[in-house]
Write a structure and sequence with these properties.
Pfam families: UBD. By secondary structure, the chain is an alpha+beta fold. The chain has 4 helices and 5 strands. α2 runs antiparallel to α3.
Amino acid sequence: MGCAGSRDKGNETSKKIRKPKAWKHTEPITRAQLTQMREEFWDTAPHYGGRKEIWDALRAAAEADLTLAQAIIDSAGVIVQNPDLTICYDERGAKYELPKYVISEPTNLIHDN
């Protein structure tokens, strides 16, 4: 029965999310710099369109572990285009693009001692 080409329409909105593949920032950055970049993104992102409650849900999901993130995304009705959350839509079709740095840490993060 379950042929590989068939798609369950009901499953369209609930792609399993995952963290992005390992990535490197253009130059090594500290946790403080990463935090500042994230804050600036979340402060300005809603001004580019979309709904505040979706941005809030995306932020909560980006900062949560994967199981909780999945629950947040599902309950907010977010349509996940890329499983790493870099591109999502709301049910009205508004697009939400998240940079990798708000979702995961770069491999060249400087760990303060």
